[in-house]
Amino acid sequence: MEFKLMPGGSLSGEARVPGDKSMSHRSVMMGALAEGTTRVSGFLQGEDALATVAAFRAMGVEIEGPKDGEMVVHGVGLHGLRAPGKTLDLGNSGTSIRLLAGLLAGQPFDSVLSGDDSLNKRPMGRVMTPLADMGAGISATAGGRPPLAIKGGRQLKGIHYDLPMASAQVKSCVLLAGLYANGRTSVTEPAPTRDHTERMLRGFGYSVERDAEGVISLEGGGSLTACDIDVPADISSAAFFLVAASIAPGSDLLLTHVGINPTRTGVINILRLMGANIELLNEREVGGEPVADIRVQYAPLKGIEIPEDQVPLAIDEFPVLFIAAACAEGRTVLRGAEELRVKESDRIAAMAEGLDTLGVKNEVLEDGIIIDGGPIGGGTIHTHMDHRIAMAFSIAALRADAEIRVLDCDHVATSFPGFDALARGLGLQISAQTDD
Ligand code: S3P
User: Which domain holds residue 380?
Assistant: First the structure.
């Protein structure tokens, strides 16, 4: 599938974007391992989260739905999973493979985890190292890439692990393995990352501590108790529209029920520093997570040096933030973002290539990029099979002076099924074409 975008336009109206991807994954995992029945609403029916559902079904967990975002997970308890009897295919989903690696390291059975071409190129050494320290039997192909083969029947032991990179997936992997370990498992992170694992474990009645020095820890051998989960809209999906309305003159949008967990709101902080007009309305707490309606209106943006402490808090939003930078007056500088190179694509390289195509001046850095705002042309964009690259360049059309074609957009369905229809309804001049 490809997207064709006519230049210009503005966005207005109200929308609720699909459910949070990180929380959707975790709701399946914890619901499956809990005692009792977990009811989930607002679940993201995107391919990534559905890969997690399929994996737990393959391990004997009964899951009803998801249908219209409603899902019921019949928990089997921490020790109730069954050997899958086949390779678990996690598609495009880094969160599924890395979090599952932690959970499966503590099971009595062997398992093999694999994915699509993109996932099978992503680094797994970052989870293999701490899991091996805990006593897990885990191996990968050359260079630490999937498939991952996990040996069952190992008694894990609790460790302390200082994360070398700011990664919620690595943190979560170690904590989930810690559920099965003897004694205490603890982690520190070089900068705060999304804390949905910690929050949701607590929601399932499992004690997770965070001390004044930022050490996050739990004791192995407890149990999870089923609960109800209301997944808010994904701020990472809302981000495309936060930027869209900010850059398109005349725009005025309301995005409802968006998760605004402070470990995820870097995109709002960065856009506000650039001069965006974003208001948080009706702030409330839903199931242990902060939620708000977000109103965003057009405002002229200016280039900034992005504060490095915001990088982990906006890690998935940089593709579309680069489009904001391209529309801003002056220069935007991003550093300290080398993690962008190991996402669904090398997002620094993929975005720089697309910006070049559209005539936006930029300079690639090892750990970031410099972008000079200015006119945006038309052209044909390669997504490198990365959903967020596809959606970011679709948004760029609002300020382009000619048509933009975005090739290979199938992966948009991993995180944002229905993106094109929703965006069209709000005013983006987008049409999807299937290439057959
Ligand atoms: C995620 C963590 C982030 C993020 C990913 C989802 C999670 O990855 O990029 O989309 O759900 O824990 P890293 O932890 O590898 O930075």
Answer: 2-19+232-433
pLDDT tens readout for residues 351-406: 999 999 999 999 999 999 999 999 999 999 999 999 999 999 999 999 999 999 99
With a 6 Å cutoff on the Cβ, whether 315 touches ligand 1 is: yes
Query: Quick one: 222 and 305 in the same domain?
Result: no
State residue 436's pLDDT score. 62
Q: Is 168 in the pocket of ligand 1 (CB under 6 A)?
A: yes
- Shared-domain flag, residues 199 and 274: no
Atom index in ligand 1 nearest the CA of residue 172 equals 12
52 lines ligand 1 (CB under 6 A): no
Classify burial at 436, counting beta carbons within 10 Å of its beta carbon; exposed 0-12, middle 13-18, buried 19 or more.
exposed
Percent of the chain with pLDDT over 70: 100
- Give the Å distances, CA to CA, from 235 to 27, 211, 284, 289, 366: 17, 27, 15, 12, 27
Same domain, 190 and 260: no
33-56 confidence digits (pLDDT tens): 999 999 999 999 999 999 999 999
Domains: count for the chain: 2
Dist. CA 199–CA 208, nearest whole Å: 8
3-state secondary structure 118-133: CHHHCCCHHHHHHHHH
